[in-house]
Amino acid sequence: MPSSKRHRVSEDDPLTLAIAPPPTESPAEREERLAAEQEAKRVSDAIDDELNKQRISEKKGPKAIKILLLGKSTTLKNFQLMNSPKAFRSERASWRAVIQLNVVQSIHAILDLMSKAHSSAHPSTSLTNLTNLPNPPLKEYPPLNPEHLKLKMRLAPLLQVEVALIKKLLPNGHAQLSKLANPAQSLPIQQEISVNSSAGWKNTFSRLMGRNSCDSADLIDWSDPDDPGVVLNACAEDMKRLWTDPIIRKLMDIEKMRPEEMAGFFLDALDRVTSPRYVPTDDDVLRARLKTLGVSEHRFTMKTGSMGSPMSHDWRVFDVGGQRSLRAAWVPYFDDMNAIIFLAPISCFDQVLQEDPSVNRLADSFLLWKAIVSNPLLKKTELILFLNKCDILRAKLASGIRLADYIVSYGSRPNDFESANLKKKFAGLLKEHSPERLYYFHLTSVTDTKSTTYILENVQDVLVRDNLRRSALVT
């Protein structure tokens, strides 16, 4: 290529133009620019050196333990609490706002149901238009009395609290906020707000608070008149009245609305979570609900072994979205995983997927488990199955809700927890599609966080030994 042509290509290259010094650069400016470039190179080289040291260190010791977490993010919180308790507790102030949002959205769902029932009984009223509800359903709702409507009006300020909390979570504006732009509109029943896993919502809250402290109580401005806790405290008695009202409970039964079965349920603790100086407990944070989208990586240094000779191990936990639409995001993380922790909420046999109401949630868990155990990329990956919400399943079956009405293959077996034996179904799928494979199995309950912590400690020990065996450090 002729030199003139090469020169012309260089001049037209946008990168060359971008990094070229300005034509009017003075000697002093040139000296300053070169010094800045030299400093940037020094920093870059230092980073490269540190990365090389890390790679050499990783080669000498056991590899990091990689876990793919499919399902409930409470398990990730348990890992954080067990291995980084100070960091976990420093985030309580951020979770306080999430718990407040959980409370408000639980009440909002009930208020929406009241609007639905009222518009069904009075189809000509303007409430139907105000709430943007679908055509009245063919259901017989118990009539609401004037006291219910007054209660609904007194709780209306909570909807503005909801908007304020969501704006804090989504500070840059989001499509989900458009549904709340008009105060006369409301969210559809039980629609969740979701944040991207990389959005750094906890840091956003910290910046908004403008403080930096290890004590989470110090992060809260108790004198702030705009603190959502002020309105929640003022509405506490009305919220308790709404939650315990027998007619409201009957409405919820008709719609099969059972918020107590879901993460983020705090209506049984309103006195505490709406108190003026409320700070979440560890258990509150574990129960809090904030749906995240996308894949997030969390790193821990976990200590195992006896007190006399503890060993540290690097863990990488990949938390992925549990929705159907996000399953394609799991595939890149299948390779080189030590274990998959699969959480199946077995109490949801009478519920459907939010994104596909034609699919039963328990049946969907069976399909996902089948896809995992039959995936050739996962042949050497440890499988840990948590059948979660056993306490809720037991209570549902005892109340007369029949498993066979939702899972046809259950047949005519007795409708009790022992006969249900859903473990057998998951084990059968594993035997059919990966017959020589072992897996670890645990029953867990929503209310028994201590038992879950104990199980996770055992899981840690199993995975550490497996990782050391792979690294030929133990036999």
Automatic annotation (TrEMBL):
Basic and acidic residues composition-biased segments: 27-46
Keywords noted in UniProt: GTP-binding, Magnesium, Metal-binding, Nucleotide-binding, Transducer
Family matches, as SUPFAM superfamilies: P-loop containing nucleoside triphosphate hydrolases, Transducin (alpha subunit), insertion domain
Binding site for GTP: 286-292, 319-323, 388-391
GO MF entries: G protein-coupled receptor binding; G-protein beta/gamma-subunit complex binding; GTP binding; GTPase activity; metal ion binding
GO CC annotations, alphabetized: cytoplasm; heterotrimeric G-protein complex
Domain of life: Eukaryota
Entry-linked Pfam families: G-alpha (PF00503)
Biological process according to GO: adenylate cyclase-modulating G protein-coupled receptor signaling pathway
The UniProt record lists the keyword Nuclease: no
Keyword Nucleotide-binding tagged: yes
Species per Swiss-Prot/TrEMBL record: Suillus plorans
Binding site for Mg(2+): T292
Region feature Disordered, mapped onto this chain: 1-46
InterPro entries per the UniProt record, alphabetical: Gprotein_alpha_su, GproteinA_insert, P-loop_NTPase
Name of the protein: Guanine nucleotide binding protein, alpha subunit
